[in-house]
């Protein structure tokens, strides 16, 4: 991840949420980079809580969630930042790719189509909790105030589903028809661990219901206004 950030063509700053481990575990390249700051959570609290606490340290106008074992294509930040600022929207996302151990990639086109989406519309492409999520959470670059209004949900997994649904429900945005994030496939990833599927359906149900309720409430308030 760090190497891919160093190849970006726009300024960036990273905040690392260390969930129950100390900064002494950081590789030397990260520890010596002034653009990298850390939040060492004193005890393990899970990804959702650790990331939300790290959000307190963000001082950039835009935020992109990311996992430390993944990476960004070289154009990822510049392409989304340019589209976001030009359109004056709250977020900009794209497609993603699975990066396999042999170096090959598989493109994933999310169910939400490319183009502009008004607040709440992305959720409508998530037909049911069992279906594919409507947009890739880590492909979203969003205004910081928007991310703070829709942070990670308090789930043991699927917390990023909540963030994606919340961000796209609170503000309009743009989906670009190009890959902006690469998921590195490997045996150690969380989704490959035994027992991961036990709570996946419940997490999806919770995030889906959250999106439906949020969209309904915001639509109702808009009609009243």
Major beta-sheet overview: 6 strands, mixed
Strand content: 15-25%
Spans of 5+ residues with little confidence (pLDDT < 50)?
Answer: none
Q: How are helices and strands ordered from N to C?
A: HEHEHEHEEEEHHEH
The number of helical runs is: 7
Roughly how much helix do the residues carry, as a percent range?
A: 25-40%
Between the first and last Cα atoms, what is the distance in angstroms?
A: 44 Å
Bulk shape:
globular
Average pLDDT level? 94
| Rounded radius of gyration (Å) | 17 Å
Name the structural class.
alpha/beta
Count all strands and give the number. Answer: 8
Organism: Streptomyces prasinosporus
Domain Glycosyltransferase 2-like: 3-89
InterPro entries: Glyco_trans_2-like, Nucleotide-diphossugar_trans
Protein name: Glycosyltransferase
How would you describe this protein?
By secondary structure, the protein is α/β, with parallel strands linked by helices. It is built from 7 helices and 8 strands. The protein has helices at residues 2-6, 28-31, 47-54, 76-87, 144-149, 159-170, 200-224, and strands at 14-19, 36-41, 62-63, 91-99, 105-108, 115-117, 141-143, 173-184. Strands 3, 4, 5, 6, 7 and 8 form a 6-stranded mixed beta sheet that branches. Strand 4 and strand 5 (105-108) form a beta hairpin. Helix 6 runs parallel beside helix 7 (200-224). The longest helix is centred in the C-terminal third of the chain and has 25 residues, at 200-224. The N and C termini lie far apart (44 Å). The mean pLDDT is 94. This is Glycosyltransferase. InterPro entries: Glyco_trans_2-like, Nucleotide-diphossugar_trans. It holds the Pfam family Glycos_transf_2. It comes from Streptomyces prasinosporus.
């Amino acid at each position: 991840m760090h190497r891919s950030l160093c190849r970006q063509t726009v300024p960036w700053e990273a905040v690392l949420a260390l969930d129950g481990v100390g900064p002494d575990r950081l590789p030397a390249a990260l520890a010596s980079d002034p653009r990298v700051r850390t939040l060492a959570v004193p005890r393990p609290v899970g990804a959702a809580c650790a990331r939300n606490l790290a959000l307190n340290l963000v001082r950039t106008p835009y935020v992109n969630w990311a996992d430390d074992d993944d990476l960004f294509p070289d154009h990822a930040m510049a392409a989304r930042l340019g589209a976001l600022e030009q359109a004056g929207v709250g977020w900009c996302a794209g497609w993603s790719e699975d990066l396999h151990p042999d170096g090959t990639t598989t493109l994933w086109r999310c169910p939400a189509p490319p183009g502009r989406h008004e607040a709440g519309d992305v959720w409508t492409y998530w037909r049911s909790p069992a279906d594919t999520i409507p947009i890739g959470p880590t492909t979203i670059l969003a205004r910081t105030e928007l991310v703070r209004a829709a942070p990670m949900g308090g789930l043991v997994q699927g917390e990023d589903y909540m963030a994606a649904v919340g961000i796209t429900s609170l503000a309009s945005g743009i989906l670009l028809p190009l890959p902006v994030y690469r998921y590195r496939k490997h045996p150690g990833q969380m989704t490959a661990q035994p027992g991961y599927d036990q709570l996946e359906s419940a997490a999806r149900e919770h995030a889906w219901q959250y999106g439906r309720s949020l969209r309904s409430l915001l639509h109702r308030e808009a009609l009243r206004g």
